[in-house]
């Protein structure tokens, strides 16, 4: 498959793992008589199939364990209603019928799978798709099965390594039973760090740290008496619930201190605690149980995120699924997860704790072969393609039926027959399937299109061309299927005469193994099942079978407090028993928690089906703990994140924090968002996750639906969610230079359309979508086009969503729209302050076409009567006659790509609006808006604490330096800032919080332009003034940086300086005042050229800020932008470089750094789409500099052009090398050269 980088990663992983796997397999087989020579031994592969031991290799094994779980739940859960619900039909029909399709309109249903739509239409429970939820010790794996073939992906990233091979589509989140619990930055954190198996959770008696398992134990969801006594020095003691409680009590005290409440400690333990909960004790802070329950809710929300990504992000309605829970810890969280997702039915297999192993026994033997094709999907080429596929199919069938080696051998396709049982006659039940990897010409989005399965025997004669007449693929419309799937997944189809190309041919063969079969269990006493038994047992679970169920009582903590809960052993329950929650079911390998309001039934195979009513409890993000009123942290609102001033006006006064020997938490600086929505630390964590999840899903939608290499391959885009005043609330981890600047963009649009000239143009209305890219309107540079969508409710704007993507072509004097010699903005392409891209729900294609294609024309008189097109050799026309000239700068050279990417941005925004709407319906508008403010206040407080620590540390170091300076004597060193009147000296007697810490730094661009920074930090309030006075005036070049770019650099650096995990949002700027000299390099005029400021100056500002804080040495100092093209195309990339070292780390080699984290185009994609050869791309050894901690090495990149093209490069650090820090050495300057290659032309 195309893309050499992931293929290379896969080859390296395979070479690393395969020897170890072969050694293990050899030792395993050697442990049996005759090495199991006469026994077919198979291993599970990552794609869900079995392969013989001798063919098992490293890259196939990466997800083999989770793949077994997918096979296990798919084979046991899908259509379970048909197979094993006899006698329990009434258990789930009522809640399922009330929740399936709830809160959905007909248009929503049309987006679902045909199976989903058919289910809803027929009003039946059959054939519902299934979500697999596998919660283990360190992580949780989620996947989806809707019948037929397993959902697969051809490329995944595991531990930062991209693997290119067929694998089951499994999403993993770092939240499991061993995920560590801690309180940081005012929020409850669950993971991603794990306590591991050793030392493990606190309750393991090994001196471990608090984990999810400890919280479940403390809440009564894990029963020590039923857990193996294998702990302690002699491995003979039970779980230590007391140690877990004591550790959680310490953490509860920390939480309560952070919330400003009293140290609730052990409140809530026992009957006395329960009485206190009902009275005045509510105001004493959170109890131990409340804190533990809060962590469980945060963990549940973290595990819901990948499920939403697997369903909602791909157009499937989550609530129409069955949730199959397994793994050691999964069933403890099953009901809560289902409730949060709106799922009405949970299925727990009786072997849920070992379902991955059980699934391997249910798996089929699979052989796959794949070959590259490089054909066109048309009537002329398809017979050749299908003939090759038939030959591959014969090869696959021989491997499966003959037991010999199969697959000849392409990556992802090796396989052998045998393993897992023989099929009768060698061919019974064997089926094959042909798949073609198709894509539109000019795009990189390939889709694997499957033909119907075939059971045509391999003995059929090979046709001279194409396939046998009866073969299912012979009449299958691959082209039509590809276009339908493309439109379904991406929301549109590419118009015009684009060809569809066949990249790869793949054939898969499957032979059923039939190793394991499910068996019936005895029926419950007192009837044959049916509605009567269900009703009778629900009324009093043990009425019909108390003796045989052998139930006991136990106290379990739920969101309603402690409740007496019935505990059952699964082996004592019978087919037809129904258990009413609250209940706990122990099955020997896992614990199943049935929450209050839910009902669990035992199927004829001994599995557990839980009915979860839609209103059993409030959802995780909606509920407030019923046992105590939430403690208010102080009032906050969305206004907390008002943008930092970019003038010299004084900032708002900030109250002093309470005295404390430690760095004090600064209080919120703004009035309450809503008196009826108090601050709750648990909900803060949950909403933070939800907001981030919305931005992430927007980004995935944009990447999937975009066409350009820049967005789909290089990931040069960003998506974010904004409060009603335009403040940044949450963003996915996209491009930093976008995210910090987008708030200025949204605010400018808000001012124009709500309070400015746009009111006369009709203002903002529901169904409108705005587009902008102009630097004066909060833009970064013209190629970064931002699409802003207001979210309306009852006629008023309640939120904004926005997406910014780099368009590699929007016009301008050179292809690629990054002219290196531009002098004014009109040379850089189409400039849009604002316009309605969508008006009243209608995409304004003609209007945006006109703007992007228009270009610019400049007339004038040249001194001396000369002509010429200016520096750079662009394709704008210039003609001189009598000293007069006309300069034409063309419009975009790739209008169709622009339109496709703009539609993708609109689709991404629409996805964000849908998810916000769901959150508002779930939790209420007032609550959502309040927590939009609270997450910003939380970030503000963390930044204030960081600034206070930094100031005190700096003042203390100044004090020590003064004491060591003999020339100062015993007096006092004083100084004053003449401009601001801020005291910068430190009395010899000690550092006072009334003093101001002043940090200063400066650096120059290669042309000598100066950037000067003075940071004055007030430790008493944790506020800071970033003053760039003294910075050079704007230049007659293009490295002027718009104001929004400097703001983005500041917010990025502040986020880096905070030593904890907080979201990057507008709250980070609330303590900051920014001064930028008007018409300077960092605040240029509206007509100034700025294309380089976003990619060059932004990096220099970042280097200066980090160096001023003594946080890191300089990095590469620019993004190293290379663009090339001609009149038909434009290409753009940022070349990687080295990252500066820090006090305790060495710099990274050859990566994108700081203000850009985009990905460079894969060499094969680059060479396939553009007329170039990549001759060299490697690290520049020795370029990291000297010192105890060296900086990262830069890179060398050599490109050969195969046809004439205009090439441009924007770069820095060619004259002035990056600076070291703390005595570190300088590094070599960067270089650029244009070597000549000769070529011969034919004809």
Question: Short summary of the structure?
Answer:
With 1243 residues, the protein is an alpha+beta fold. 29% of the residues lie in helices and 20% in strands. An eight-stranded mixed sheet has the order 7-4-3-10-11-24-23-20, sandwiched between helices. Strands 26-25-29-28-27-30-31 form a seven-stranded antiparallel sheet. Strands 12-17-15-16 form a four-stranded antiparallel sheet, with helices on one face.
Kindly describe this structure.
The protein is α+β, with helices and mostly antiparallel strands and 1243 residues long. Helix content is 29%, strand content 20%. The chain has an 8-stranded mixed β-sheet with strand order 7-4-3-10-11-24-23-20, sandwiched between helices. Helix 10 (288-310) crosses helix 11 (330-341). The longest helix has 40 residues, at 925-964. It is globular, with a radius of gyration of 32 Å. The two termini are 35 Å apart.
């Amino acid at each position: 498959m195309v893309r050499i980088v992931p293929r290379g990663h896969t080859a390296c992983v395979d070479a690393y793992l395969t020897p170890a796997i072969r050694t293990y397999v050899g030792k395993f087989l050697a442990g049996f008589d005759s090495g199991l020579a006469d026994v077919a031994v198979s291993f599970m592969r990552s794609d869900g199939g079995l392969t013989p031991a001798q063919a098992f290799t490293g890259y196939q094994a990466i997800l083999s364990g989770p793949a077994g779980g997918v096979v296990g739940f798919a084979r046991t859960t899908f259509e379970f209603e048909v197979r094993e619900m006899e006698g329990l039909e009434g258990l789930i029909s009522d809640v399922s019928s009330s929740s399936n399709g709830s809160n959905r309109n007909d248009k929503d249903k049309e987006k679902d799978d045909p199976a989903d739509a058919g289910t809803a239409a027929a009003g039946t429970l059959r054939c519902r798709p299934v979500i697999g939820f596998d919660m283990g010790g360190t992580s949780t794996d989620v996947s989806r099965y809707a019948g037929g073939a397993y959902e697969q992906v051809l490329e995944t990233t595991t531990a930062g390594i991209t693997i290119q091979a067929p694998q089951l589509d499994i999403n993993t989140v770092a939240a499991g039973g061993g995920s560590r619990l801690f309180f940081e930055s005012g929020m409850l954190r669950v993971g991603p760090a794990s306590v591991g198996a050793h030392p493990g959770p606190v309750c393991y008696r090994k001196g471990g740290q608090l984990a999810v398992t400890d919280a479940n134990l403390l809440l009564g969801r894990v029963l020590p008496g039923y857990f193996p006594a294998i702990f302690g020095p002699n491995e003979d003691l039970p779980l230590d619930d007391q140690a877990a409680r004591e550790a959680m009590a310490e953490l509860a005290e920390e939480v309560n201190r952070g919330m400003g409440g009293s140290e609730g400690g052990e409140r809530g333990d026992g009957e006395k605690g329960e009485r206190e909960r009902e009275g005045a004790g509510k105001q004493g802070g959170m109890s131990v149980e409340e804190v533990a329950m809060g962590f469980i809710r945060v963990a549940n929300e973290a595990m819901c995120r990948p499920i939403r990504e697997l369903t909602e992000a791909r157009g499937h309605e989550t609530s129409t699924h069955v949730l199959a829970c397994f793994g050691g810890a999964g069933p403890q969280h099953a009901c809560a997860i289902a409730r949060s997702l709106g799922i009405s039915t949970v299925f727990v297999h009786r072997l849920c704790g070992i379902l991955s192993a059980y699934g391997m026994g249910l798996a089929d033997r699979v052989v796959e072969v794949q070959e590259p094709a490089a054909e066109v999907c048309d009537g002329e080429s398809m017979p050749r393609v299908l003939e090759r596929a038939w030959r591959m199919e014969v090869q696959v069938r021989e491997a499966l039926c003959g037991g010999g080696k199969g697959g000849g051998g392409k990556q992802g396709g090796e396989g052998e027959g045998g393993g897992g049982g023989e099929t009768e006659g060698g061919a019974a039940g064997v089926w094959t399937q042909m798949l073609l990897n198709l894509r539109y010409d000019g795009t990189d989005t390939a889709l694997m299109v499957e033909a119907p399965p075939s059971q045509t025997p391999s003995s059929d004669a090979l046709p001279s061309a194409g396939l046998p007449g009866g073969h299912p693929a012979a009449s299958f419309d691959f082209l039509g299927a590809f276009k339908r799937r493309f439109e379904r997944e991406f929301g549109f189809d590419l118009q015009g005469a684009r060809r569809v190309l066949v990249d790869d041919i793949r054939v898969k063969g499957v032979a059923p193994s039939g190793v394991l079969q499910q068996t019936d269990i005895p029926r419950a006493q007192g009837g044959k099942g049916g509605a009567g038994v269900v009703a009778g047992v629900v009324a009093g679970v043990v009425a019909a079978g108390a003796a045989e169920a052998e139930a006991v009582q136990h106290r379990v903590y739920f969101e309603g407090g402690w409740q007496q809960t019935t505990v059952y052993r699964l082996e004592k329950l019978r087919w037809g028993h129904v258990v009413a929650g609250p209940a706990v079911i122990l099955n020997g390998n896992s614990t199943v928690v049935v929450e209050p309001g839910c009902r669990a039934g035992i199927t004829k195979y001994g599995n557990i089906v839980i009915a979860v009513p839609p209103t059993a409890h409030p959802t995780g993000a909606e509920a407030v703990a019923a046992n105590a009123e939430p403690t208010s942290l102080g009032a906050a609102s969305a206004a907390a994140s008002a943008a930092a001033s970019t003038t010299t006006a004084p900032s708002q006064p900030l109250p002093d924090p309470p005295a404390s020997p430690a760095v004090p938490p600064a209080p919120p600086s703004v009035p309450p968002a809503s008196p009826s929505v108090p601050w709750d630390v648990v909900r803060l964590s949950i909403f933070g996750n939800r907001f981030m999840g919305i931005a992430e899903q927007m980004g995935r939608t944009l990447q999937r639906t975009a066409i350009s290499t820049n967005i789909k391959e290089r990931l040069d885009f960003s998506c974010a969610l904004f409060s009603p005043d335009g403040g940044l609330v949450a963003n996915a981890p996209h491009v930093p230079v976008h995210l910090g600047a987008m708030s200025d963009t949204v605010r400018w649009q808000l001012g124009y359309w709500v309070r400015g000239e746009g009111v006369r143009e009709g203002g903002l209305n529901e169904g409108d979508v705005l587009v902008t890219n102009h630097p004066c309107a909060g833009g970064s540079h013209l190629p970064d086009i931002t699409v802003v969508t207001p979210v309306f409710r009852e006629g008023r704007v309640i939120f904004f969503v926005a997406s910014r993507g780099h368009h590699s072509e929007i016009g301008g004097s050179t292809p690629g729209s990054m002219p290196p010699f531009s002098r004014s903005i009109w040379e850089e392409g189409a400039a849009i302050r604002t316009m309605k891209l969508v008006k009243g729900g209608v995409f304004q294609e003609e209007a945006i076409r006109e703007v992007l294609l228009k270009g610019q024309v400049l007339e004038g008189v040249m001194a001396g009567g000369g002509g010429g097109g200016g520096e750079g050799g662009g394709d704008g026309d210039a003609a001189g006659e009598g000293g007069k000239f006309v300069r034409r700068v063309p419009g975009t050279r790739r209008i169709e790509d622009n339109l496709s990417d703009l539609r993708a941005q609109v689709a991404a925004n629409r996805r964000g609006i849908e998810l916000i709407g769901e959150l508002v319906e779930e939790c209420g508008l007032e609550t959502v808006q309040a927590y939009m403010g609270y997450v910003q206040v939380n970030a503000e407080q963390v930044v204030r604490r960081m600034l206070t620590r930094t100031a005190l540390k700096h003042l203390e170091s100044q004090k020590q330096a003064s004491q060591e300076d003999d020339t100062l004597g015993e007096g006092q060193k004083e100084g004053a800032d003449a401009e601001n009147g801020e005291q910068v000296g430190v009395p010899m007697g000690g550092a006072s919080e009334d003093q101001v810490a002043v940090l200063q730094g400066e650096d120059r661009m290669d042309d000598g332009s100066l950037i000067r920074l003075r940071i004055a930090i007030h430790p008493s309030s944790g506020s800071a003034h970033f003053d760039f006075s003294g910075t050079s005036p704007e230049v007659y070049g293009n490295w002027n940086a718009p104001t929004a770019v400097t703001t983005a650099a500041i917010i990025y650096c502040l986020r880096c300086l905070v030593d904890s995990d907080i979201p990057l949002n507008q709250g980070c700027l609330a303590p900051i005042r920014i001064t930028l000299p008007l018409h300077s390099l960092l605040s240029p005029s509206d007509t100034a050229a700025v294309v380089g400021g976003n990619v060059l100056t932004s990096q220099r500002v970042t280097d200066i800020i980090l160096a001023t804080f003594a946080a890191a040495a300089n990095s590469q100092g620019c993004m190293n932008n290379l663009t090339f093209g001609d009149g038909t195309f434009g290409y753009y990339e940022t070349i990687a470089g080295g990252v500066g070292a820090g006090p305790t780390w060495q710099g990274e080699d050859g990566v994108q750094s700081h203000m850009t984290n985009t990905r460079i185009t894969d060499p094969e994609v680059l060479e396939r789409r553009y007329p170039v050869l990549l001759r060299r791309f490697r690290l520049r050894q020795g370029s990291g500099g000297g010192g105890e901690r060296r900086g990262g090495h830069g890179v060398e990149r050599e490109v050969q052009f195969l046809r004439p093209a205009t090439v441009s490069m924007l770069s820095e650090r060619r004259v002035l090398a990056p600076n070291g820090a703390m005595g570190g050495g300088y590094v070599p300057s960067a270089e650029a050269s244009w070597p000549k290659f000769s070529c011969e032309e034919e004809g």
